[in-house]
Amino acid sequence: MLHPDRIRLGVSDAPEFQELKDSGNVAKSPLRDVLTKHPRVLLVTIGLRLAQNSVFYLITVYMLSYLAENRDDSTAGVTAVMIASAIGLFTGPLWGWISDKVGRKRVTIGGIIGVAAFGWIFFAFLDAGPLAFLPIVVILGMNLAHDAIYGPQAAWFAEQFPIEIRYSGVNMGYQLGTVIGGGIMPMVAALLYVIGGHSPWLICGYLTLLCLLSLIAALAAKDPARELAISARAGD
After folding, report:
1. CB of 144 within 8 A of CB of 87?
2. Rounded distance, CA 69 to CA 63, Å?
3. Which of helix, strand or coil describes residue 189?
4. Which of 81, 114, 140, 219 is 20 to 30 A from 16, comparing alpha carbons?
5. pLDDT per residue as tens digits for the range 199-221
6. Can you tell me the distance from the alpha carbon of 211 to that of 214, in angstroms, rounded to the nearest whole number?
């Protein structure tokens, strides 16, 4: 079994990173540069995480307690999440590949709209729908809507930042968006459920608000993949 240090030593930098290193233009304080020189891009990456991460935690965490409280059944939720997670091994890369062909923005915006609509359908089903069909509903939310945002995300985040601060910028945007969008979602959902008189509709409204913020971020983001796809078709 290879030691992790030996694996790292055997992996070379991508050519563009090696060129940056050789040029000596490596940022001395990349985190400070992200905050002071690229705050707009940082906000875009944070915003792009909100819809995707919030619906992920709603499905994989909050749904289980919601079903246990309102339907006296949590096993159906676990089964549905396991099925959707297995399918996600294929749908995540698939959506990423599609975004290479048609652009990140188109795919992501479609996913954001899907998440916004899904939230309302999702809770209506959790309250009254036959749980035998729950895997199908979860697949719609996870593998179609969520994965359409998540699949292109890593590449799209990297395309937003200059190479000298890319690692720090992507990491900061990803982590902050995770905390704001998903990390607190189960707690916020539980609070909104109580405030709403044990009704889920405030949760749906909150998810829709996060989707609106993600939509604004998606519209503001650069989409080099789209430009390359148009150029490739023009070349053909």
Report:
1. no
2. 10
3. helix
4. 219
5. 999 999 999 999 999 999 999 99
6. 5
